[in-house]
Amino acid sequence: MDSFTVPYNAIAEEVIMVEKLAPMREQVYIDPRPPETFTKAHQRVRTQKPSLIHELARVVTGLPGFLLYRMGPIGARYVWRPGPMIIAPNHFSNFDHFIGGWFTWHRVHFMAKSQMLANRFLIWFFSSGGTFPVQRGQRDEASMVTARTLLERGRVVVMYCEGGRSRSGKLADAPKRGIGRLALETGTRVVPCAIYGSERIRNWKKLQFPKITIEYGAPLRFEVIDSPTREQEEWAAKVIHDRIRRIYAGLEARKS
Questions:
Q1: Do residues 88 and 47 lie in contact, with contact meaning Cβ atoms separated by under 8 Å?
Q2: Which residues of 144-173 are buried (b: 16+ CB within 10 A; e: fewer)?
Q3: What are the pLDDT digits (tens) for 61-92?
Q4: What residue ranges do the domains of the chain occupy?
Q5: Which one, of 107, 119, 120, lies nearest residue 52 by Cα?
Q6: Which residue from 202, 199, 191, 198 is spatially nearest to 247, judged by alpha carbons?
Q7: What's the predicted TM-score (pTM) here?
């Protein structure tokens, strides 16, 4: 079967090792702006379909993606299906925003850190293209409302269970529980996605253009819990994260 209901139990983890990478710019984990800064962005994303900005971004990122990084998918049939879906990739590069959703025919919505929406123009630009902000370092209920609203309307949301980008180029030891909460509250199918090679995109100044492979796994579906506990949210996130680890490990084994 391609999809199944996940029972409440534990799954073992693996540790994935990768090479040394160029340093990343220091990340800012707290956005001091008031939540009202993004009210219009959330309203826009909840009520409007992504504009042509979304298609423009696909073209602009697709050209280097295919020409320089030779992007190729495995298991893309899992993201071709109609209906609501959460695509859950690992997160090594800003380019992952586009890689994870490139091979689905849906106009996908990205949950992105609010710092990317640095001014009024970027708030309009990103939200018009379907991206909505999450303010890290605080319980951002507006982002969860937006994600649930989109899924209720049959849309596709890309959400990283690790939160921010990995600075080491390794999968995080533990996921953030937000994706577990969303999966449990909505019962929407979750497609685990492993992106292999994108951590080396940051080495472009050394003229390194790694081949990037994207593998989508069979979807998971959790039984709905209206008000999941913190433990349940953490468990569901761990199940999703573990599936990403297993897919990534398979890619790493085949590439080595």
A1: no
A2: bebbbebbeeebbbbbbbbbebbeebbbbe
A3: 888 778 887 888 999 999 999 999 999 998 87
A4: 40-255
A5: 107
A6: 191
A7: 0.84
Write down the residue that tokens 């994870």 correspond to. Answer: 100
- Looking only at the bridges linking them, the beta strands covering 190-196 and 213-216 are antiparallel
Give 48's DSSP letter. S
- Could you tell me how many helices (H) and strands (E) the chain has, helices first? 7, 9
DSSP calls for 192-207: EEEEESGGGGGGGGGT
62: alpha, beta or left? (left if phi > 0; alpha if psi -120 to 50):
alpha
Name the DSSP letter for residue 44. Answer: H
- Which residue in this structure is represented by tokens 């800064």? 37
Q: Which run of H or E residues covers position 190?
A: strand 190-196
CATH level 2 (architecture), domain 40-255: 3-Layer(aba) Sandwich (3.40)
